[in-house]
Design a protein that fits this description.
seven-stranded mixed β-sheet, Rossmann fold, 2 domains, binds NADP nicotinamide-adenine-dinucleotide phosphate, alpha/beta, 199 residues
């Protein structure tokens, strides 16, 4: 229970803003992150038939991404997606550093939801909304601070109704907290990590 927010709430709010439909194809940019994997579980538990691909800078994580439920893996090399595929919906966790490139891989009428800033860039630069938000498409976001009891309970009801997997990928004890940080900072980090305060 304690491990669900803020990660799942961030993914859930973004999912709602993306207006996913059963005919959509979806790309999660930054798929190996805790929020990325949570988003996959939330989406697939309601729409198992929707194709969801995920990106990583390292294809060594491909097997892990497929095992957790992604349908395909795209390499994100130096901020450029290594694919010619276009998607209907894009969950953008690298953020302002790559939003422009994401729109190059979005179908007409699609939605990019820029919720993360893993790329380390906070603000959009050299971004012309008229040209860079491609043909009749949309740019949105989600802020986890936009929360109250009703919104949080709505997410918990969704998780219960859809039997959404919420188990963290890795659990550390408090005396292993340095290992937990090392793991998250390493090139092997994957999914949601929690630290449990054993007495
Ligand atoms: N909008 C909100 O209210 C809200 C709320 C919570 C979190 N967030 C944001 O959501 C994002 C995900 O959070 P999280 O806790 O799930 O992250 P996390 O688990 O720590 O993400 C780790 C992943 O980030 C990728 N990564 C790390 N540095 C990167 C870089 N310089 N460029 C591209 N990818 C990089 C790595 O993927 P690869 O090595 O596989 O490429 C790594 O597996 C963060 O930006 C966080 O700030 C936003």
């Amino acid at each position: 229970m304690a491990a669900i927010p803020e990660t799942y709430y961030t993914a859930y709010g973004s999912l709602k803003n993306m207006r996913v439909e059963t005919s959509d194809t979806v790309l999660v940019r930054g798929a190996t992150s805790g929020v990325g994997v949570a988003f996959l579980h939330l989406l697939k538990s309601e729409f198992p038939q929707v194709r969801v691909d995920g990106t990583s800078r390292s294809l060594t994580k491909e097997a892990q991404l497929l095992a957790v439920g992604f349908d395909g893996v795209v390499e994100d090399r130096d901020g450029q997606l290594q694919t010619n595929t276009a998607y209907d919906k894009m969950f953008e966790l690298i953020g302002p550093a790559t939003v422009k490139d994401s729109f190059l891989h979005l179908n007409e009428g699609g939605i990019v939801c820029s919720t993360g800033k893993l790329g380390g860039q906070w603000y959009l630069e050299d971004f012309d909304p008229i040209f860079d938000i491609k043909a009749n498409s949309y740019l949105t976001s989600f802020y986890s601070g936009n929360v109250d009891d009703d919104k949080l309970n709505e997410m918990l009801a969704y998780i219960e109704a859809n039997d959404t997997p919420v188990k963290p990928e890795k659990v550390f004890s408090l005396d292993e907290i340095q290992d937990a940080h090392r793991y998250l900072d390493s090139s092997h980090s994957f999914g949601k990590v929690v630290v449990v305060n054993h007495q």
